[in-house]
Design goal:
single chain, 227 residues, alpha+beta, Heat Shock Protein 90, 5-stranded mixed beta sheet, two-stranded antiparallel sheet, 58% helix
């Protein structure tokens, strides 16, 4: 019995040990596969969400240039250069996970210029920014979702206020606009912000805050911790 016991001990213990090592290896290998699939899924979802943003912005800018070319052809070349910068940002620079805050704000500046021309005499725009460090990094095409939503759903003759501030690596964007309270519950009204929320969850996880207030004016508040 002693010999049998010694034999079992010498045989089974190594067998159990190496079986455990093998199972652990297989588990870790499987986890790597799962993480890779998750990563690829997130990248595909981010690309899809970004693709929903790009056409709206670019087509609006093209329409603005067309109208301006008819009324003020001498000033049109400058707008074409601005559109060229925005195309470069959307088609190339925005493919990176992050871009400098300076580049993203230049994109916003150009967009606001286009909107100022497009809504002249129809809407009043108040745009201001205060940036401490423009070299901070931000995920591209986030802020445009909030700003474009304000223009898209604001009423005629309304005021639109856009404020962007950055201090100590924390960015805050506040957008206010008048709105039609009867349309605020429609899916079309909310789809832009829903896409933004998904992107924020995928990219920033716990390092952001997004709030929507529906009082006398429609207010969207976004706070981000920049890298």
């Amino acid at each position: 019995m002693k010999c049998l016991s010694d034999y079992l001990w010498q045989t089974l213990v190594p067998l159990i040990f190496f079986s455990f090592i093998w199972m652990l290896y297989r588990f870790l290998d499987k986890q790597d596969e799962v993480e890779q699939v998750k990563k690829e899924h997130l990248e595909m979802e981010l690309k899809f969400l970004k693709s929903q943003i790009n056409p709206h912005v670019l087509f609006n800018n093209l329409n603005t240039i067309y109208s301006y070319a008819l009324e003020k052809p001498k000033e049109t070349p400058e707008l074409i250069l601005m559109l060229s910068d925005n195309l470069k940002h959307v088609l190339y620079e925005s493919n990176a996970k992050t871009v400098s805050l300076e580049k993203e704000l230049q994109f916003i500046d150009n967009y606001m210029t286009f909107q100022g021309i497009r809504t002249e005499g129809v809407k009043h725009i108040n745009y201001n920014k205060s940036i401490q460090s423009s070299e901070k990094q931000i995920a591209p095409l986030l802020l445009i979702c909030i700003i474009e939503n304000a223009f898209k759903h604001s009423t005629l003759g309304s005021d639109i206020s856009v404020s962007i501030t950055e201090k100590n690596g924390v960015l805050e964007c506040v957008c206010l606009n008048d709105y039609d309270k009867e349309k605020v519950t429609t899916e079309d009204f909310k789809i832009g912000l829903q896409n933004l929320e998904k992107r924020l969850q995928l990219i920033y996880k716990e390092d952001y805050k997004l709030e929507v207030f529906k009082d006398e004016v429609y207010k969207v508040y976004l706070k981000l911790k920049l890298s």
